[in-house]
């Protein structure tokens, strides 16, 4: 199971602040198992968005958002509501957000952050990948992950080695940031490139203590070093 948790409320509202109408798509798989999805989460987000003046045109729950064929066959029943929506808020891991983004022509916004599992997460034969970095950037990058699509995992744009849309590290590999630029241009969201992304907190690449005490980690439970919470993070949490 891929472990994902709700994004902080303040960050979520910042991501959707430029939209007046949204459609919510929820994965009926891993988020439900993590208690970060399902109808309660849809209702919670609908209320939160409404309080901030954003209309929710509709919502749907699809068994597994990592299956693009399933996503496409289900979303076709909501075409009219999707046409009224300026973006889609996706409750899933990073793979589900990317898969949904590849099936529609409006921006996708991740409602959850995906945590590191430090190992096998499951099999998905398509191109979408999620590194479980703990801070999902897909709202800024048009639904294309800069961590997994860029060979250097750059989060602030392409490097100087890109040539003809290809990566300098692997000549046959498409430059992830060139793909992001093309997608943002198609979505009319090139202004996203001027926004500063949150710095990566590499401590999130470790499995949190809380997760190690669950059944999932019963065979590996051990005391590990936990970095102290920064004062700025404490203040932000207390303000939410």
Descriptive report:
By secondary structure, the protein is of the alpha/beta class. Helix 6 (94-101) links the parallel strand 4 and strand 5. Helices cover 32% and strands 12% of the residues. It contains 10 helices and 6 strands. The strands form 2 sheets. Strands 3-2-4-5 form a 4-stranded parallel beta sheet, with helices on both faces. It has one domain. It has helices spanning 9-16, 30-33, 38-51, 68-75, 79-83, 94-101, 146-149, 176-187, 209-212, 231-239, and strands spanning 4-6, 21-27, 55-62, 87-91, 108-110, 112-114.
The number of distinct helices, counting runs of at least 4 residues, comes to 10
Q: For the largest sheet, list the strands in their spatial order.
A: 3-2-4-5
- Which outline best applies? globular
Determine the oligomeric state from the structure. Answer: single chain
Overall radius of gyration? 18 Å
Mean pLDDT: 86
Q: H/E element string?
A: EHEHHEHHEHEEHHHH
Label the structural class: alpha/beta
- Number of extended strands: 6
- Termini separation (Å)? 29 Å
Low-confidence stretches: 221-227
Tally of structural domains: 1
Q: The biggest beta sheet, please?
A: 4 strands, parallel
Helix content: 25-40%
Strand content: 5-15%
């Amino acid at each position: 199971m891929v472990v994902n948790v709700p994004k902080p409320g303040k960050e979520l509202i910042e991501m959707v602040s430029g939209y007046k109408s949204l459609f919510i798509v929820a994965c009926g798989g891993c988020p439900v198992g993590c208690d970060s999805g399902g109808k309660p989460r849809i209702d919670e987000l609908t209320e939160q968005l409404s309080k901030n003046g954003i209309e929710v045109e509709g919502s749907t729950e699809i068994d597994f958002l990592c299956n693009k064929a399933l996503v496409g066959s289900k979303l076709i029943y909501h075409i009219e509501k999707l046409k009224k929506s300026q973006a889609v808020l996706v409750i899933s891991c990073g793979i589900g957000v990317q898969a949904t983004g590849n099936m529609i022509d409006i921006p996708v916004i991740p409602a959850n952050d995906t945590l590191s599992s430090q190992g096998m997460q499951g099999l998905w034969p398509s191109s979408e990948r999620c590194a479980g970095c703990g801070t999902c950037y897909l709202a800024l990058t048009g639904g294309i992950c800069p961590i997994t699509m860029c060979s250097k995992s750059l989060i602030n744009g392409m490097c100087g080695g890109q040539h003809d849309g290809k990566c300098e590290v692997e000549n046959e590999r498409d430059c992830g940031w060139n793909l992001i630029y093309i997608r943002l241009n198609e979505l009319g969201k090139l202004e996203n490139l001027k926004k500063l992304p949150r710095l990566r907190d590499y401590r999130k690449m470790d499995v949190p203590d809380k997760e190690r005490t669950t059944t999932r980690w019963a065979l590996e439970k051990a005391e590990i070093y936990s970095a102290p919470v920064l004062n700025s993070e404490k203040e932000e949490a207390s303000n939410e």
